[in-house]
Structure formats: structure tokens, C-alpha cells
Amino acid sequence: MKTEFVIIGGGLSGLYTAYLLEQLGKEYILLEGRARLGGRIYTEDKFDMGPSWFWPDMHPRITQLIDDLHLSVFPQHDKGAFLFDKHENKPPLRYESGYAGSPQSMRVADGMQTVVNGIKDKLISGRIIRNAKVTHVAHTATEQDSYSIVTAEIDGEAQTIQARQVIFAMPLRLLANSITLSPALPTKIQKKFASTATWMAAHAKFFAIYDTPFWRKTGLSGSASSQVGPLAEIHDASTNDGAGALFGFVGIDAHTRQSAGNELIKSLAIKQLVRLYGEQAAEPIDVKLIDWSQETMTATDADKNAPNGHPQYGLRDIQSALIPVYQQGWYFAGTEAAEENGGYIEGALEAAEAVIALSVSR
Questions:
Q1: SS3 at position 230
Q2: Could you tell me whether strands 204-210 and 244-250 are parallel, antiparallel, or unpaired per DSSP bridges?
Q3: Which of the residues 245, 278, 305, 337 has an alpha carbon 20 to 30 A from that of 159?
Q4: 116 CB-near residues (< 8 Å, 6+ apart)
Q5: Strands 128-129 vs 28-31: parallel, antiparallel or unpaired
Q6: In this structure, are residues 321 and 188 in contact, taking their beta carbons and an 8 Å threshold?
Q7: 15 with 37: CB under 8 angstroms?
Q8: Do 171 and 199 touch, CB atoms closer than 8 A?
Q9: Model confidence over 267-299: pLDDT tens digits?
Q10: How far apart are CA 153 and CA 231, in angstroms?
């Protein structure tokens, strides 16, 4: 196969890159290692197992995209009292002032996956290959030509694609850890990529789903902070059509989570919700747990150690080292490459726009 662009990664950044290339009349093939599209955007039964919030006042790209796709949105529920869970054997402290955030967090009515699906539906069919795990990318330059050979295992069979330009729309650390590049990236870039924490990769999200958001009847917002755990931060995750849900970020580190196992974490989380919200929390109609540190197409072993605070993302500090890499037609998207909004959904779109500006002007 031959094409002008190969995009590696079918998350939001890769799909949006494909969309922008189509607007410019460019040919491409997008390779996604999973059977599904979306990457860290993943919705089950309208519940976002990955990112769920966006902030219109801060994030104009994703806000405009959602509007262009004619998707319904609604505000994150934050009305009511906030709970602070300090002691296992004492009731939580209750703060009537609530948790109201500023600016207002917004959610997509049927989940963020509908954004992914909306972009995919706009693309020309036949240009996306799933279950395609890229293993090698090798650049060749002659006096007459410059191109890369991308090798991927597609449904278990090694295949190659020749492309003028390659866009890596994936976590930088995962790229450094999983794809053999020839020539190798300059040492400064390798170190930068290897040290760039993958957004969300250290985290796990737990959901308890109920017929109704019963906690609201007692004046609770659903939001809580806990020093006891296992859930460290809890919020109302109810759907816009009335199903009740609470979700929490698991406050146990990735190594301990793996040793404990999912069933124990689920059991302890339900006990915690009963302690905070009462006996009605004891019998959810469903529970969900995703541990992103165990998703091998998102996280590496290094990502099991969570960063302290929000990392500094972007490639500004290695721009000089990237010049020869750009000259051979290799570019880097994904939210970790975004200068202003790295680590947010907005960053995935920002990085895609930046890559298009670089590659198309080449």
C-alpha cells in the first residue's frame, strides 16, 4: 500500500487529524491498534470511562466541534452539599455550600464517544484500519525521493505501508516504548518522550449505577472528597435521561490496584458509598471499573507512577532537535504534544491542528 500520510492512532487527535486532511484533499491511512476507535475516550452505556468534562469558556475547539456535530450537552450536576470523608468510623463532614466549580463543567448527553463517532461518520470509508499494531517505522531518503515504510501487524499479519509523511497521534511515552524507529530519534527527543507522563494512564475510574440519583433527595450534590478511600474523589455521573450514577477516581496506586484485583476494589468502593450516601447505595444495578494503567495501548510500566499534579506538556523545549525529524516527514500529535491544553480533550484537537500546519506546509 502507498499513501501520502499514515496516521498512527485512532483516538480523538488521530481522527481529527484525518478529518483536517480530508478537508485539504489529502490521502491518508489511519492505523488503530484496538478494535475500537477513541483511545482514551471510551463510553459504556452513556458513562464515560475516560474523560467526560469540557469547559466552553476555556476550550473553544471541542466546544465548536460538539456544536458542529449537533450533539446535546448538559452541565455537570453540582447542586447540593459536598461531603468530606476524613475518618472511616465517623460520618463525613457535610458542607452545604457545595462543590460548584468555576467555570461550569459540561458533559455530552450520550457520552464523549459520540464525538468520536461523529468525526468518524464524516470521514471517507475505507481509510481506517483497526487491529493494526504498528511495530516499525523506517525512513528512506534518496536524491529523488523521501518516504517512510510503516510496518504493522494487522489482524496478526505483518503488512507494510509506504507514506510520504507519518503522524504519530499517540502518547509520546507509548511511542518511545512500543515502536522501533529508523533512524532513531535524537537522544534529547527520546528522553523527552520517555519522561512525558501519559494523561490518565495512572488512573482508574469506578462507577456505581442506580435507577435514580437518590442522594439528590437528601440535598447532596454527589460530590465528595475522601482521605479514607478507596475512592479519593467522587462525583455525580447521572445521565441526562434520569439514570443515577456516582463515579470516583480510585485513590490507590496502580501497583496496589493490580495486586488487589478489580473485584476487591469494587467491593470496597460500594462499602465506601454506603458509608457516605446511605444504605440505598448498597445495591447498584451495575458497577463499572476501568484501570487505565493496565491498558497496554495507553500506558507503559512507567505510567503506573502517577505524576504530582498536572504535568507540563508540549514540545516547545525540543523544537530545535525536532527540525530534522520534521524534515523527514515525522510529526507528533496527541494531547501530550499540545502546548497550551496538554492533558485535556482540547489538547488533542490543538495538537492535530498544529501537526497539519507543520506537515501540509512542508
A1: coil
A2: antiparallel
A3: 337
A4: 11, 12, 15, 37, 38, 41
A5: parallel
A6: yes
A7: yes
A8: yes
A9: 999 999 999 999 999 999 999 999 999 999 999
A10: 38
Strand partners, 165: 5
pLDDT in tens, 24-53: 999 999 999 999 999 999 999 999 999 999
Ramachandran area for residue 300 (φ above 0: left; ψ -120 to 50: alpha; else beta): beta
Give the DSSP letter string of 60-81. Answer: HHHHHHHHHTT--EEEPP--SE
The closest alpha carbon to 123, from 9, 21, 12, belongs to 21
What whole-number distance in Å separates Cα of residue 144 and Cα of residue 130?
A: 33
Domains and CATH numbers, the chain: 2-41+115-199+308-360 (3.50.50.60), 75-109+202-294 (3.90.660.10)
Q: Distance from CA of residue 168 to its chain's centroid?
A: 15
Name the amino acid, one letter, at 271: K
Q: Please tell me the distance from the alpha carbon of residue 234 to that of residue 137, in angstroms, as a whole number.
A: 42
Q: Give one DSSP letter per residue of 284-343, joined into a string.
A: -SEEEEEEGGG-TTT--GGGGS--SSS----SGGGHHHHHHHHHTTEEE-SGGG-SSSTT
C-alpha cell at position 120: 468518524
Whether the Cβ atoms of residue 231 and residue 206 lie closer than 8 Å to each other: yes
What is the rounded distance in angstroms from the CA atom of residue 28 to the CA atom of residue 118?
A: 19
Distance CA 306, CA 285 (A): 31
Give the Cβ contact number of residue 143 at 10 Å: 5
Q: Which three cell numbers stand for residue 64?
A: 465548536
Query: Considering the entire predicted model, what is its pTM?
Result: 0.96
Q: Quick one: pLDDT at residue 26?
A: 96
Pairing type for strands 204-210 and 286-291 reads antiparallel
What is the distance between the alpha carbons of residues 174 and 190, in angstroms, rounded to a whole number? 11
Q: End-to-end CA distance of the chain, in Å? A: 22
Distances (CA, A) of 213 to 77, 104, 243, 273: 11, 20, 7, 13
What the block records as the C-alpha cell of 311 is 504535568
